[in-house]
Amino acid sequence: MRLQYSEISLILGISALAGAWAAAAPQNGAARRVERTAVQAIFHSTRQSASDLEITGMAQGPTANASGYFSNADLARLPQVEATVSDDPDYPGVTMHVSGVYLATLAAATGATSSFDLIDTLCTDGYRSHFPADYIAAHNPILVLRMDGMTPSQWAAQKHQDDPGPYLVVYQHFVPAFHVLAHADRPQLPTNVVRLNFSTAAATFGAIAPRGRFAADSPERQGFAIAKQNCLRCHSQGPYGGTKSSLDWDALSTWAREEPTFFAKYIHGPRGFESNARMPGNPEYDAATLAALTAYFRTFTARPPATKPSKEPAQEANRR
User: Could you tell me what percent of the chain has a pLDDT over 70?
Assistant: First the structure.
């Protein structure tokens, strides 16, 4: 069979590992790697199955920013990693044996060069997790193909009420690499992943950099460091960030500017204002951390939000 240029990818094999991604790919560790003797996954130009993983942003083929798809079987031909996960906050009290592909291995095997230093994962509900190369190197995130020998959907049907498929990301054991005030480095744990996008940290995080010049230890820069990891997952700034929330960066900045006390209280405990709020609270954030986020968002030019929860805390009887 003759392959079209846009369909050729991993036939080149592991020799394609290069740049920042090869450096990030773990060589040793607690998780066990299961090497394949041959790597022949194909980067398809069209979707072959509903479970195919879409890849976008990567310069692949005759034009830049081409997109394509990997089937589950193609991903299984890559070097696999096996790990036992028992501390995933999405599945408290559950121990699961997973197998899959390190994000660094996947990135390197696709031929992505060091010009791309960030992968973001898009989920079916608009949630978006961001994985800069330094985060990948520090934490070795695993794109899961099998859970206890089953696909994620099969696993959920037997062992859990929530289907995390077709793909999700887990860690062998997550240890925070940094702290900013009361914010600790967090595991990015997307489920229902349908797309990986290759881009750069400069473009993605540059879009939400605080407007103005601030010292590295200023509240505005501290708030920026927190927002990159915590806020950008669900809220968007133009084409960047998640869309799980309908409130974008401008709406958040309006609240921070016009009602800073309410803004800080809502971040701390949104379900005190809306019993059905989808946003998780941040009860560990102290006054200094909330002040830093408020100062950061106030640096943006704002417009009125389309909707806003009540400024009065919900009555206890209305809470779930």
Answer: 77
